[in-house]
């Protein structure tokens, strides 16, 4: 088992590896799971995603982490902290994307709360955001459960996106 970056009651969040491609493709090839993204991803696009994530680990010390069930090691999804452009400013975003078979079980909220605590406590970030399509009500609920409030709305890639934010303190 890989060394966890973060542990929660039910899962571990660990660094992504190139061998996680088949697990990620469960999400990336699912049109329903990817409904609020530009499109599903090919294997090659998913490999680019992994490369981007590994680059974030090197550059920022954070990135998206693989979420696994603690008891079984079963792949659940991904959650972590990544740098994002929020309209000319780079801010650290809590992002989450879980396999559809795991939706509605509270994993995204549990992982996002753990990432918030890690970002504020271990990394001393002042602010964290989540960028969410205005129609993605499930992700908006997760952001609100983490304590985030809607800060602004902007256009990105032809979509209206909300920025939800929380300040440390």
Task: Write the SSE topology.
Layout: E1 4-7, E2 11-15, H1 21-28, H2 43-60, E3 64-69, E4 75-85, E5 90-98, H3 107-122, E6 127-133, H4 137-145, E7 149-156, E8 159-167
Antiparallel strand pairs: 1-2, 2-3, 3-4, 4-5, 6-8, 7-8
Helix pairs in contact: 1-2, 3-4
Overview of this protein structure:
The model has no long low-confidence stretch (mean pLDDT 94). A hairpin with a 2-residue loop joins strand 7 and strand 8 (159-167). The chain is globular and about 35 Å long. The strands form two sheets. The protein has a five-stranded antiparallel beta sheet, sandwiched between helices. A three-stranded antiparallel beta sheet has the order 6-8-7. The chain contains four helices and eight strands, in the order E-E-H-H-E-E-E-H-E-H-E-E. It has helices at 21-28, 43-60, 107-122, 137-145, and strands at 4-7, 11-15, 64-69, 75-85, 90-98, 127-133, 149-156, 159-167. Helix content is 30%, strand content 35%. The chain is an alpha+beta fold. It starts with a strand and ends with a strand. Helix 3 (107-122) crosses helix 4 (137-145). The protein has a single domain, classed as Gcn5-related N-acetyltransferase (GNAT) (Aminopeptidase), CATH 3.40.630.30.
